[in-house]
Amino acid sequence: MARSVNDNRTTDAEALEAENTTLRMAVAQLVERVAELEQIADTDTLTPLANRRCFLRELQRVARQVSRYGHSAAVLFIDVDGLKAINDTYGHSTGDRVLVHVARILRERVRATDMVARIGGDEFGVLLERVDAEAAREKALALCAAIAGNPLDSIAVAVSIGMAPILPEDHDEATSALARADCDMYGSRREVRLSR
Fold this sequence. Notes:
A 4-stranded antiparallel beta sheet has the order 2-3-1-4, with helices on both faces. Helix content is 60%, strand content 13%. The protein is α+β, with helices and mostly antiparallel strands. Helix 3 packs across helix 4 (92-108).
C-alpha cells in the first residue's frame, strides 16, 4: 500500500523534531561541561578558592569600575609566614593543611561579595570592593589577628598582609595594585622586624 504525501510529511516532521530534541540535549550537556571546565580552570587545586588567573580577571574588572564610576576598592596581598619551616618540621602535608586552614579563615572573615584567592604557593589575595583605604587596613589587621588567634592543632600560624587601594589609573594594568600591596606587605614585615 502506497504512503500518502501527508504520511511522509508527518514522518519527516517527527524525525526532525526527534533530531532537534537530541541536538538540544547535546548542546545542554556541552554548556554544562564548559561551565565545569571554566570552574576547574578558575579554582585552586588545593584550596576551595579562586586561583590567580581568576583573581587577576576580577581585579581587572573592579579596577575598570573604580576608573569609570569612582567606586573605592582595595586589594590585600597575604603571605603565610614561615611556611617553609612548617614544611621542613612537620612535612608538606601539614604545610598543605596550613594553607587550607588560612584559606578557610580568610573566606569566613570577609563579605560574600569580596573575593579571596590563592595566588601563589603561600600567597593569597583578597579583593575588597567599596571600601576605603582605612577600612581595608582595618580588615587586614583583623585578618592577621584572626589567623594568629587560630592555630592549626598546636602549630602557630601567622601571616603578613599588605594593602593597596585600587586607583583609577589601574584600569589598564590592574596587576599594579597587586604589586603595590605586595610591596606594602614587605614594608610592614620589615617594620615588624625592626620593632623587635
